[in-house]
Amino acid sequence: MHHFQYKGNELFAEEVPVREIVAKVGSPVYVYSHATLERHYRAFDDAFAGVPHTICYSVKANSTMAVLKTFINLGGGVDIVSGGELYRALKAGADPQKVVYSGVGKKDDEIEYALNSNILMFNVESEQELDRINQIATRMGKKAGIAIRVNPDVDPQTHPYITTGLKNAKFGITIERAIEEYKRAKGMAGIEILGIDCHIGSQLTKVNPFVDSIIKLKKVIGILKEAGISLKYFDIGGGLGITYNNEEPPLPSDYGKEIISATKDLGMHLVFEPGRNIVGNAGVLVAKCLYTKQRDEKNFIMIDAGMNDLARPALYGSFHGVQPVVNDQDGLVMADIVGPICESGDFLVKDREVPMFRQGDLMAFMSAGAYGFAMSSTYNSRPRVAEVMVKGNSFEVVRERETVEDLIKGERVPSFL
Ligand code: LLP
Q1: 245 and 386 assigned to the same domain
Q2: What's the domain count of the chain?
Q3: Which of 168, 205, 287, 375 could form a disulfide with 249 if both were Cys (CB 3.0 to 4.6 A apart)?
Q4: pLDDT tens profile 42-73
């Protein structure tokens, strides 16, 4: 459930007509519902009410400060994958002791920044990274908290581009190797072993792959215990899916029950890194119809947002529902909804029956809160769009629309030209 509903024939974001937002802020614009963000965070949190746990919201899904602050206010931590994400999270007021740092390519300066910020732990993704963190921490006279990201070789049954827990993926360390690395880490002066981690993929619509990887990691935890290495944190990653079209992912409460029953005998502190599950259906991208054209074989609806604003359809063939902001069109038409970018892959909707949008009509692309703005670019020199957060009957711009001046910021024409 989210807070983008019709009242009469008008689409509302909470108590605000979406049309009014566009009248004030322009189009295209991302619109987030604060109530939905809060509700989704709480649903996830409540699912683990009985057990010690920390929700480290995965910043990459939507790194806008207003969104981060919403979860931080609710007691959430963050999962980061870069120095830039750490900077944002700290600026938004994140508690460093609730920060976990994943990613296969941590750079020296990022590791130093994270150590100086006293984050909770690094999710280590390779043998060499472990050595590097140890060297840097030792030099700085610090101890780096770590978990090893174990690649459990479990198929999450999702899109290949967002499958991360299979052996052929670049992520994590294999089970066999991980045990050796923990033993090595035990002797390292700059390392404090805190936990174990996995993240097997995104947009999972079943619980089994999560449970399968937990079972595999429990074996590792058992072996380590015998070797005198005890772990406090069990980071299960993110990945719980949402409904874009007709997917039926488990509710956080059902997911919670299964995870709790699979882990309760361990008595460990659980860490989660949800992204999409809490922000995905809390945001829409609103765009305007510029032109329409009919061809014998096809109709095209040209809009003012493109693959640079919402890349998911072009990149993964993803489905985003589309709804009119004012529901007054004359029936449906089979069409592609396309952007202004000079690429045939620039579509937001492909071969689908959609309302017969006319020039000037506004439409909302649903479920765009996760990996929407965060993956947007300025390709074709199109300034990135504005973002708005709605709360009840009010709304605020939480990111200004970029200008053409922003586009050339930092560029220099060399002296020899
Ligand atoms: N933790 C780690 C280490 C991750 O790599 C990810 C996502 C998450 C947590 C959060 O996963 P979530 O709960 O959102 O599924 N751009 C793609 C999704 C890429 C996911 C990358 N990693 C998309 O638009 O579908």
Answers
A1: no
A2: 2
A3: 205
A4: 999 999 999 999 999 999 999 999 999 999 99
In-domain check, residue 416: no
Contacts with 295 (C-beta within 8 Å, 6 or more apart), sequence order: none
State which residues form the domain around 387.
4-32+280-407
Long-range CB contacts (within 8 A, 24+) of 290-295: 290/340, 290/359, 291/359, 292/357, 292/358, 292/359
Out of 276, 281, 319, 371, give the residue to mutate to test ligand 1, the one with the largest number of ligand atoms within 8 Å of its CB: 276
Residue 1 is predicted with a pLDDT of 60
Residue of 102, 202, 203 to test ligand 1 pocket, by largest number of atoms within 8 Å of CB: 202
Active-site residue list: 342
Separation of CA 227 and ligand 1 centre (Å): 33
Indicate whether residue 292 lines ligand 1 (CB < 6 A): no
> Of 246, 277, 308, which one is at a domain's C-terminal end?
277
- Residues 101-111, mean pLDDT to the nearest whole number: 98
pTM summary value: 0.97
Token pair 């959430």 is at which residue?
76
Residue 67 and residue 371 in contact, taking contact as beta carbons nearer than 8 Å = no
Cα 202 to ligand 1 centroid, rounded to whole Å: 5
